[in-house]
Design brief:
Helices cover 31% and strands 16% of the residues. Helix 1 packs parallel to helix 16 and helix 11 runs antiparallel to helix 12. By secondary structure, the chain is of the alpha/beta class. The chain contains 18 helices and 20 strands. A hairpin with a 2-residue loop joins strand 13 and strand 14. 47% of the residues are buried. The longest helix is centred in the C-terminal third of the chain and has 21 residues. Strands 1, 2, 3, 4, 5, 6, 17 and 18 form an 8-stranded mixed sheet that branches. The protein binds flavin-adenine dinucleotide (FAD). The site of flavin-adenine dinucleotide has 36 residues, from helix 1, helix 2 and helix 16.
Length: 551
C-alpha cells in the first residue's frame, strides 16, 4: 500500500510522503510503527533523541529502573519475542530496558524506518490535501496522511525557575535528560533536588561513592520497598510456560498489572491480622501496595491512616536520626494521593554520615549560586547539582510541538483550559492526528494501556483505508462525552491536586485531572461500542478521488 495523495499539491518544496508518521521512539511509538507497517502502511518514525527507548533512553541516571514488573511491561504481541528475551530482574534497570527496546526494533526490522536526532518543531494540518506537514529541527519536512504523536507523558523535564539557576559553574543534570556518557560522582559534593520517584532511586545509587550528598526535599513521599530481585531459572521457565495465562491476565487487568486484587476491606480483619498484612505488603513487590491492598485502603480514611502509620513507624525504625525520620514522613497527603515511589535502600541512605536532608518547607532555596545552593539557612557548595524535579506531565510534549489543526487552530489554544480528547487518542478539529499514551490515558502499567490505544488507532486507520477515506476526525460530541467523563472521574480517583497528575507542579498550567480514572474497562467498553456502531465516534471523508474513479 502506498500513499494515495499528492504531496506536491501546494507550492512548498516537495516533502517526503508517508501514510503514517509516528513521532517518538518509546515503547508506544515503536509499537505503533510495528502495527502500521504490519497493516501495510508506509511509515516513518521521527525521534528527537539519538536512540531508541523514549523514557528508557533519556532517564539513564544511576538507579533508574522499573516499578512495573519487567515481563508485564514488555510487549505481549509476539510469543517469539517473549520467549527470546530473558529479563534478568523482576524490575529491570534502565540499561536492560533500553537494550530490550533496541532488540525489538532490530528483531522486527524497524530501525530503517526511524530517523534519530529529528525533533518535530511544528505540525500543520493542510485541509486541501487532508495531510499533515511536519517540520523537523534539521530543516527537513515530512508530509503524512496520518500523524501519530507517541511523544510520552513524562518526556518534558521540568526545573523550577529558581533565581540564579543557570549561574551554577559546576555540573548540572536533570534526571530525565541524563547524558549518554558516564557521570563521575566519585568523591564529589552532590546536591539532589527533589524526592519523588526519580530522586529516591538516585540517592541510594550514588550515596556510597560521593563525598557528600545533600538531598533537598520539598515534599516527603510515601516510599515503600520495591523488593526487586533476580529472576531465577525456575521463574524463567514458569514465565515461558505461563505466557498465555499471563497475557490473558494483563490484557484484561484494570491497571495492566498481574497481581490479583485483595478480597477484604481493612476492618474485616482484626488489628493483629492487619499488622501482619501490612508487613506482608511492605515485603511485596512494587505496585502490589496499591493493586492488592485492602480494597478500601485508598478511599477509607481510617484504613488509609492506619497503613500510613505503619509506613511512618517503618521510617522511624530505619532512620537513626529522629529529626531526619520525622522530615521524611509525609504530613500533607495520604498514601495514594500521589503516585507512590518504590525504593531500594532510600531511607537507609540517611544513616550514612555523608548524606543529609534539607527540608525546603523549613529552609527554602533562595537562589542557585555559581558554586552551589543557598537556602534561608545559608549557602552550600557543590560540584554537581542533580535536578530530580519531574516533568510537565501529560500534555507537555504535545503542547511544545507547534500543532495546528483545521483553520490554523493551535492545539495549545484549543487546550488552554485543559486537554479535550476522545479516549485520550484524538481531539476534534485536528483530523488524522492521534496521540496514544498522551493525556486522558489511565494510571497503571503504561504499555498495556498505550498498547490498547495503538491497537484501536490502527483499527481506525485500517477502517479508513478499506473504505477509501482520507480524513478521520472524532466528533465534537464524542470528545465532549469522554472529556466530561475524565473531568468528573477526578472525584472518583485517589489522586488529588497535590499530584502532578493534575498538572499542579507546573506554574500556570490549568489544574485538570489528566488521567482516565475509568481505566482500561472504560476504554474497552467505549471501543466496543464504537466498533459495534460502525466507528460512529468519527466522521470519515475523502479529499482525493478513489483509485480507479473516472472524471
Ligand atoms: C524514570 C521513569 C520510570 C518510569 N517507570 C515506569 C514503570 O515502571 N512503569 C510504567 O508503566 N511507566 C513508567 N514510567 C512512565 C513511562 O514514561 C512510560 O512507561 C513509557 O515509557 C511511555 O512510553 P511512550 O513511548 O509513550 O513515551 P516515552 O517513552 O516518553 O517516549 C516518547 C518519545 O517521544 C520523543 N519526542 C517527544 N517530543 C518529540 C518531538 N517534538 N519530536 C520528536 N520526538 C519527540 C521523546 O524524545 C521520547 O523519546 C516511568 C517514567 C519515568 C520517567
Amino acid at each position: 500500500m502506498t500513499a494515495s495523495f499528492d504531496p506536491a499539491a501546494d507550492e512548498r518544496p516537495p516533502a517526503a510522503a508517508v501514510d503514517v508518521l509516528v513521532i517518538g521512539a518509546g515503547i508506544t511509538g515503536i509499537y505503533q510503527l510495528y502495527r502500521a507497517r504490519h497493516s501495510g502502511f508506509s511509515a516513518l518514525l521521527l525521534e528527537a533523541g539519538e536512540g531508541v527507548g523514549g523514557t528508557w533512553y533519556w532517564n539513564r541516571y544511576p538507579g533508574a529502573r522499573f516499578d512495573s514488573e519487567s515481563y508485564t511491561y514488555g510487549y505481549l504481541f509476539s510469543r517469539e519475542l517473549f520467549d527470546d528475551w530473558e529479563w534478568q530482574e523482576h524490575f529491570a534497570a534502565q540499561p536492560e530496558t533500553e537494550r530490550y527496546l533496541n532488540h525489538v526494533v532490530d528483531r522486527f526490522d524497524l530501525r530503517r524506518h526511524i530517523r534519530f536526532g529529528a525533533r518535530v518543531s511544528s505540525a500543520e494540518y493542510d485541509e486541501t490535501s487532508g495531510t499533515w506537514l511536519v517540520a523537523v529541527s534539521d530543516g527537513s519536512e515530512v508530509r503524512a496522511r496520518f500523524l501519530v504523536a507517541a511523544t510520552g507523558v513524562l518526556s518534558v523535564p521540568y526545573i523550577p525557575d529558581i533565581p540564579g539557576r543557570d549561574s551554577f559553574g559546576g555540573e548540572s543534570y536533570h534526571t530525565g535528560q541524563w547524558p549518554a556518557g558516564p557521570v563521575d560522582f566519585a568523591g564529589k559534593r552532590v546536591a539532589v533536588v527533589g524526592t519523588a520517584s526519580s530522586g529516591v532511586q538516585l540517592v541510594p545509587a550514588i550515596a556510597e561513592e560521593v563525598a557528600s550528598l545533600t538531598v533537598y526535599q520539598r515534599t516527603a513521599n510515601w516510599c515503600t520497598p520495591l523488593n526487586n530481585r533476580a529472576i531465577t531459572a525456575e521463574e524463567q521457565a514458569e514465565l515461558r510456560a505461563g505466557f498465555e495465562q499471563l497475557r490473558e491476565i494483563l490484557n484484561t487487568s484494570i491497571h495492566g498489572f498481574h497481581h490479583p486484587p485483595h478480597d477484604r476491606t481493612a476492618f474485616e480483619d482484626p488489628a493483629d491480622e492487619r499488622q501482619r498484612f501490612y508487613d506482608q505488603m511492605w515485603n511485596s513487590p512494587g505496585f502490589t501496595k496499591l493493586t492488592s491492598h485492602y480494597t478500601d485502603m485508598l478511599f477509607n480514611p481510617e484504613a488509609n491512616a492506619e497503613w500510613c502509620d505503619f509506613i511512618a513507624a517503618k521510617i522511624r525504625s530505619i532512620v537513626e536520626d529522629p529529626a531526619t525520620a520525622e522530615r521524611l514522613i509525609p504530613t500533607d497527603h495520604r498514601f495514594g494521593e500521589k503516585r507512590p515511589p518504590f525504593v531500594t535502600g532510600y531511607y537507609e541512605s540517611f544513616n550514612r554520615p555523608n548524606v543529609s536532608l534539607v527540608d525546603l518547607r523549613e529552609t527554602p532555596i533562595v537562589r542557585v549560586t555559581p558554586t552551589g545552593i543557598e537556602t534561608t539557612e545559608g549557602p552550600e557548595e557543590f560540584d554537581i547539582i542533580v535536578w530530580a524535579t519531574g516533568f510537565d506531565f501529560g500534555t507537555g510534549a504535545l503542547a511544545r510541538m507547534g500543532i495546528r489543526g483545521r483553520g490554523g487552530l493551535a492545539l495549545l489554544d484549543y487546550w488552554a483550559e485543559g486537554p479535550r480528547t476522545f479516549l485520550g487518542i484524538q481531539t476534534h478539529g485536528f483530523p488524522n492526528l492521534f496521540f496514544p499514551g498522551g493525556p486522558h490515558a489511565a494510571a497503571g502499567n503504561n504499555p498495556r494501556y498505550n498498547g490498547d490505544q495503538v491497537d484501536f488507532i490502527t483499527d481506525v486507520l485500517v477502517y479508513a483505508q478499506e473504505h477509501r477515506f482520507d480524513v478521520v476526525e472524532v466528533t465534537e460530541r464524542s470528545e465532549e462525552r469522554w472529556t466530561n467523563m475524565v473531568n468528573r472521574g477526578a472525584a472518583n480517583s485517589s489522586f488529588s491536586e497535590v499530584s502532578y497528575y493534575f498538572g499542579t507542579n507546573i506554574p500556570g498550567k490549568p489544574v485538570r485531572y489528566l488521567l482516565n480514572s475509568g481505566g482500561r474497562p472504560k476504554l474497552f467498553s467505549v471501543i466496543a461500542d464504537v466498533v459495534a456502531n460502525d466507528y460512529d465516534a468519527f466522521t470519515f471523508s475523502r479529499v482525493t478521488e478513489p483509485a480507479g474513479a473516472t472524471g
